[in-house]
């Protein structure tokens, strides 16, 4: 094979699209439409769904947030099926109680059965072996009679977690004692657990302590019930509802009576009540008819409890137990216990109780909130029992008017009833709050709950919304606690957005700013609550753009001063705004200025330690703002982009968006403003692109900006961008970091270069330059110093593209043009000197491709060598002058080389032969080259 083959391009008068093609079965751009037919096998689909559930687990960090919202996710106006499932609803409520009522105080536990707490004598007596039944009965009676406090020990200074752990240990001790036939011992442990509920030395933990202890008592009751059931029915799985006392064996009845007598022998009222309630289900083995009267008796016996906090939670335990046994039939007991609570309501405010919670440094509202879970649960069952909710609400509101200090009851009533009922009685509720405002410590909770209900009103017509708003504002603005004020403001501002005018909303925002300033506390202490208020406004105001026209909105947003709070506030406003505003343009200068102010706050928060996701999120918000901001005057729009470039230099994503926006502006101004605007836009892009950190992005934008300038007939600006592009190509890395992963750039660079070479066809030469095809010659020289391996597909593919361009540039008329741009075919008219220069370039490129073929052979890259030889052969056939012996000889040698290297998949070679054989000139060519 000769060492050099001078290239001579063929001159073509007509352009034919005889391109080698491959047969395909589908169009490459056609989207595959998948049609999914629902399966009739529902069991299979459900099993697959259950199998995938573990993979859909929430982020562990979000699980706690979901748990905190559990209480809010329990609407009281639920469907009938869920009403009966009290156990499911109570389990959800338990989670919210355990999360809410926590303490950092030290706790105390009293027991004789925890490890290390028993005396040796007592322990040895407990494990004493018995031989016969008489001794066994006698031993149990001795244990019951010997139930004194001598062996009981007090463990003090426990943290909350340590207390929970020890309660769980007591539960395990009950199971161990039961399994080892020491049932009286298990009974004693349960009694000692119930006694823990008489201790209110740490009141703020009492609701959670009740949950923990009640679970232990439920487990003990289940052990007794299961044993009695096994004694009577063996291993049959019979539910409580189907047990008939007449079919119960006598031994089971005697055992049941034995347990009830043991329970009745407890001297203290509280543990006796708890144990009787825990064993309530066991009465079914004696008489089912006596169970409901027993519940009524226990309801009245609780009156004997002197501590109202202890009393209301034992009422909750009684109602829970009855609902497990009787489901819907238990709802009257909820109503009875609620009535008992209301009758004893004033005990909550007894001086003794006030002294106790004062000694624990609890505020009045913290103390009253301890009762809220219990009252809510009693109201839950009462509402399910009484279907005439409106009359029940009137009755309860009447009692609130009659009794003193009714705020606890009022708050629970407002949160328990459905929105439609509360909305109808909203005026009456506000009157009650207004009359008792001076002494109410839970007024913020009552107003907040009422506001939440009013937010569900489609159109409030009972009383003027302005009157309601004025009333709540007078009450809220008089609050001393800023946190309470903001808690009330959050739902009521939503009500104002839904029902009132923008002027009214603006007045509320002004008042809010005055309140926060006069409060004397830094607004930064309440930034999270202020942010929630602003989020409510943004989500519910009908026209979100109108919000920025209010003179009080932006001052409220910027009221916080710390950098972190301001940044969080700005991100929240921008995020919610763009979620709601779907318009493609915003042309109000006030709105644009406000959004830009927020974007600057977000941008200025980015620093060297900012994580990638934070920068990406900030960039997306700012880019969205740039995309929608529009000015009718193009000069003003360009000045706006200039200001954006100066303000947002830290974020590449924003600079990229600005370059795209200015290029778009350049095309918009082509017809209306003349050449100066287009040149200004081209200069803007040329100055902005070097600021980008990503070399690949720089190269892409240089190409785009040059193409736009060329389209606008700004030849000098286009040439400058293309020269800059040629200069950065060697600096493009092989990999770029995107989304935390390294991604190769070869495919993107190949597309970029192909696009660039296609553009060079229509770019006219600079007449002041002594070099022909100035930009292209510079690119060819650049390829010599690019750090690509010669065997890389990117390298030799680029050479093939350059060869295609050089052959096309030798033609008398190019395949395409840009209007008003004089390309080289018109500029040179295919003069001999110009064509000779291009063919010299082509000769060098062809020689380099032969060098690549040799390198591929040395590297044993057979497939690449085969493909490249056919690619070069095809270009010689279609673009070279085969009348020249050097060209025909090169084509023949390349064909023979490809036949020696022929791959098992020879479709490309066959398609080339098929095209040539279909044309008479092609057949002559094949005979001349002796190709078979």
UniProtKB/TrEMBL annotation:
Please tell me one Gene Ontology term that the record gives under cellular component. endosome
Keyword Protein transport present in the record's keywords: the answer is yes
Highest taxon of the source? Eukaryota
Q: Name one GO biological process term.
A: protein transport
InterPro entries hit by this protein: VPS35L (IPR029705)
Q: Show the stretches that span the lipid bilayer.
A: none
The compartments listed are: Endosome
Q: Which UniProt keywords apply?
A: Endosome, Protein transport, Transport
For this chain, the family text in UniProt reads: Belongs to the VPS35L family.
The molecule here is called VPS35 endosomal protein sorting factor-like
Q: Can you name the source organism?
A: Pieris macdunnoughi
